[in-house]
Amino acid sequence: MHLKLEKALAWLLAPAVLVVAGCGGRVSASGANSAQSLSSLSIQASVARIDTNRTARYTATLADGEPATVEWSVTGGDPSAGAGSISRDGIYTPPSYLTQDAVTVKVSAVLAGRTMSAPPSDTTALTVTPGFLQPLTPGNLSLGANGSVTISGSMTEVGGSGGVRFTLASDAAGTPSTAGTLSSPHCIRGSVSGANPAYTVCSVTYTAPAVISASESVYILGTVASNPTLSWTRVLLNAAGISSNPAGHQSRLSVPVQLGSSSGSNVDYDANLGQLTDCCGGTLGALLQDTSGNQYVLSNNHVFARSDQSIPGETIIQPGLIDNGCTPYGVGPGTTPVATLTGYPTLSSPATNVDAAIARVTHGLVDPKGSILELGAKQPDGTLAAAPPGISSTGGKGEAASLGLMVAKSGRTTGLTCAAVSAINVDVVVDYFTDCAETSQSRAKTFINQIAIAGTSFSDAGDSGALVVDAANAEPVGLFFAGGTDSNGVEHAIASPFEDVLTELNSQVPEAGALTSYSFVGGADHPVSCLSYDAAKATDSATAKPETPAFPAAERERLEAALAQAQLLVNPATGVARVGIVASKDRPGQGSIGFYVEPIANATNAATIPAIIGNETTAVIPVNGPLGEAAASPVASQPRSASLSQAIAVKQKFSAALLRSNPAIFGVGVGQSLDNPSDAALIIFVDRRKIAGNLPEPSESIGGVRVRFILMDRLHVTRSHGLAHGAAARNAGSCFSSRRPVAAAEEELDPSEQNPEVNSRPFEDRLPLPE
């Protein structure tokens, strides 16, 4: 390995904390009973209070602290739903609903394997409260002045007196806001009806302010009063008066249906013991045609073909099962069979570099112009018209993405959203599952040279298969298929370049046994009326003061040594007004040497700030004068071309080695440095659940290129999943959903431990149930 790479990656080789893949991690305790101190037993609980969507872990130890093998049991609980269940490994699963606002469950352990009349035992109490059945709906939307919307939340309570409490805030942390008003909540309380309880549904109406001078986001927070579980809806107060509600993408559309709407395979569900328990859905992305004029709908392999599990001929429906109560076509009403699966590049093949599938349109059931919901112009009532993508510039072949390009997508869950391309040439590892509940992982597949897009509310579970277009002309850019959320709550979407999508479809999915050539169906190029939930943040971040936190003594000593070298570069004639120690934006938790740079009359005399000085990274802070505040001028929209070319070359050389170096790294690409936006940076995506504490700082850049780390959830494919016939979720909202209900101080366990009985889906179990 290259010497510089070895030095830069030395920090990655430290032992990682023990975690379990999935939505969360845990450290498991195991061991035989101690031969000593058998006179007493003690239970240790991960939490003392959970809601019905969570699980709790219990362990038992003997008096000397040694792990004990015990027999577990639970009693008490809800008079109708019961106490729930506990596995032999001590994982407690609550009942799927409650008839009261809170119940107490007693968890007991008895020492196993000992022949004694009264073996040691212990009992502890756990409070269980209702949780959200699903996140608040809709999860995001846009309103103009005086616009209003009804927001609803479902909780797993049948009867009782509790409900969802709604509050208006300026952020997800709950800072109060006066931007608009909320009505009094209205709750419809359900009752037990056989095996299908009707849950409590609460709704509230939000009304936007009479005047919106500048676009900004507000939040409607939802909490269940008896527990700390939180969900929210993000509302974009749009100064242009655009009204957009993703709910229109999730409903059953009149034929011919438009793209950007809910869809999926008619047999994309989980079944257990003859009962349908869970189902999936994604997005109808775009319309293609072959050289013979036959038309096909395009989406992801994991949406149409169930991650390689389908055979050609399966029915594609609109909306997807997720939006029809998991009721397949042929079993009940609510869906339209719009296409028949034609084929897909197989994910199991190492030669496949896209997640795509196509289905031949049933004549007359899909808009033959390829119109996509909300991709058109603003209408008199503030809503956005449907429109085809633009194809006049490229002849239907799509265009290449570039760093910083503003793109748009129209998807099932978040509707129309816009954000900038944040990284290119991205190599990523994406997790795939064989079931909707994501309890059975099938593979972790590596894709190379993908596109990354970062933006608040740009995408979420269920947007899989959405077309990504250039916001300036609606030309196709990519096919969205995976995403995750970083430690700042920003969603990072991954899309396959459309050149790759079309190339692989052309070579691997023939029509009637013969090779063909696919192209997009669309119209004249046209701008997209962008909805960006990051509008206010962009200005705030450009003028924010640099942080100057305290650092450990050893790090502070290194930074001060480098600062002495940096002082030699202070020269008002070159624009370097002063230097100081600041927090790095590229490496969370680490320090950098900050260069405070002011504008100078002759730009050719401006100093070139090195990426590294004294083995410490640098940051550039624009200021107005030697002692001035941070400058209000916008940062560079693009890194220097020479820096970008160098970063691409370094990425291509070292990406494979980086991905192999540590299991916490699951992506490597090229983007823009936040410490110095004029420089490109090697973007390294790190699983934040698999690192111990703060990231250690590399002593050098890699190949002379800055390194920027993004700490985030591991990437999942982004189809959405739902509940069948009222069955309660153990995982309300998907692992990758940025808006799934969140509860503080609660341990999240591997999904496979939450639902151990659902581990596979034989093909015959996935066929539509008989009437």
As residue ranges, the low-confidence spans are: 1-36, 536-543, 724-771
Per DSSP, the total helix count is 8
Strand element count: 41
The CA-CA distance between the termini, in Å, is 62 Å
Largest sheet: 10 strands, antiparallel
Report the principal-axis shape.
globular
Overall pLDDT confidence: 83
Percent range of helical residues: under 10%
Write the topology of this structure.
Elements: H1 3-9, E1 41-45, E2 49-51, E3 56-62, E4 70-76, E5 85-86, E6 91-93, E7 103-111, E8 121-129, E9 132-137, E10 140-143, E11 148-155, E12 164-169, E13 181-182, E14 186-188, E15 200-207, E16 216-224, E17 230-237, H2 247-250, E18 262-265, E19 269-272, E20 275-283, E21 286-289, E22 295-299, H3 301-304, E23 315-318, E24 336-343, E25 357-361, E26 406-411, E27 415-433, E28 441-455, E29 467-470, E30 476-485, E31 491-497, H4 498-508, E32 519-520, H5 535-543, H6 553-566, E33 576-583, E34 591-597, E35 612-613, E36 616-622, H7 641-661, E37 665-672, E38 680-687, E39 706-712, E40 716-717, E41 720-723, H8 751-754
Parallel strand pairs: 2-8, 10-17, 34-36, 38-39
Antiparallel strand pairs: 1-3, 3-6, 4-7, 5-6, 7-8, 9-11, 11-15, 12-16, 13-15, 14-15, 16-17, 18-20, 18-23, 19-20, 20-41, 21-22, 21-32, 22-25, 23-24, 24-25, 26-27, 26-29, 27-28, 27-37, 28-31, 29-30, 30-31, 30-40, 33-34, 35-36, 37-38
